[in-house]
Amino acid sequence: MSLNRFEQRIFDYWQGHRDERQFWQEKVRGIVKSLNDDHAAATRLDGEFWRYYVERSGVVPVFKEAARHEGMKRTSMKNLAELVIRLWMEPRPKKKKPDAGLEMLPGF
Predict the structure, then answer these.
(1) What pLDDT is recorded for position 100?
(2) Per-residue pLDDT at 105
């Protein structure tokens, strides 16, 4: 999955800032659990991550510098949301499909 510059900046920041990463891991888990729908969770996280980016742009030098050069036009954070859901959530059991046709085979 490829991330845009804004998403990559957040992801890289989290890699170097354990407390921030842990905060967001818990927040992502809570949102996914409460919504019980990865698509809806990714949509909600898209907005949460953009607000976070704007907030960090006022205080963290790497974000400030990027904002000064690139501006602050709203950018999608959906790929980042989908990535962290995959990375930070336990895989859900897959729904089992009925084994159609097996009852017709000898021995079944």
Answers:
(1) 58
(2) 60
Looking at the domain assignment, is residue 105 inside a domain?
no
Enumerate residues 6+ apart whose C-beta is below 8 A from 75.
4, 6, 7, 50, 53
- The DSSP string of 15-49 is HH-HHHHHHHHHHHHHHHHHH--HHHHHHHHHHHH
Q: Tell me whether residue 65 is in a domain.
A: yes
Phi, psi of 98 (to 5 degrees): -65, 140
Q: Is 9 helix (H, G, I), strand (E, B) or coil?
A: helix
Domain that holds residue 80: 5-90
Q: Token pair for residue 41?
A: 């969770």
- State the CB neighbour count (10 A cutoff) for residue 77: 24
**Regions of the chain short of the pLDDT cut 70:** 98-108
Taking the C-alpha atoms of residue 108 and residue 93, their distance in angstroms, rounded to an integer, is: 25
- Specify if 47 maps to a domain: yes
